[in-house]
Amino acid sequence: xxxxxxxxxxxxxxxxxxxxxxxxxxxxxxxxxxxxxxxxxxxxxxxxxxxxxxxxxxxxxxxxxxxxxxxxxxxxxxxxxxxxxxxxxxxxxxxxxxxxxxxxxxxxxxxxxxxxxxxxxxxxxxxxxxxxxxxxxxxxxxxxxxxxxxxxxxxxxxxxxxxxxxxxxxxxxxxxxxxxxxxxxxxxxxxxxxxxxxx
Length: 199
Prior knowledge:
Blueprint: E1 5-9, E2 12-16, E3 22-25, H1 27-37, H2 43-50, H3 54-61, H4 68-78, H5 82-87, H6 102-120, H7 139-146, H8 149-159, H9 181-198
Helix pairs in contact: 2-3, 7-8, 7-9
């Protein structure tokens, strides 16, 4: 059975093994393992999970060695091996697999379900007509060029391979001549939205 004593020397950690040999470990290595143990979580998240003050956690990330009870808390919270955490030797995790957070577990399962559903979809592609058309209708240019709501709507519907009902739009376009350009564009877009829903 091995016996180790750990004590801080500045920003380094010294450990003495059963043979009385003192070895210095750089504080930076411990900090990197601390980051890895918490999956690069923020200091605030680490403090919340360990139920200790944020300032204390900040000291650890600046090279200060946590007290033994905090080291045990870290190991219990993250599932990492104390040997790995302190000196970087052995497996990172004390058990077979690292613990997985519920959010990560759910995210992985959703990804699996989506991949499964996508792999089961038929491979033939259905032509969706204008929905497949990547060219969007340029409302601004049409309003500037045509300056007539019926012509703009007719052009937009034609762009989508549809016919514009000519008796539509009286309410949206009442007072068209007094509208600013921005108001004209907004009126055309509003009318198109309502018409798409009603059709």
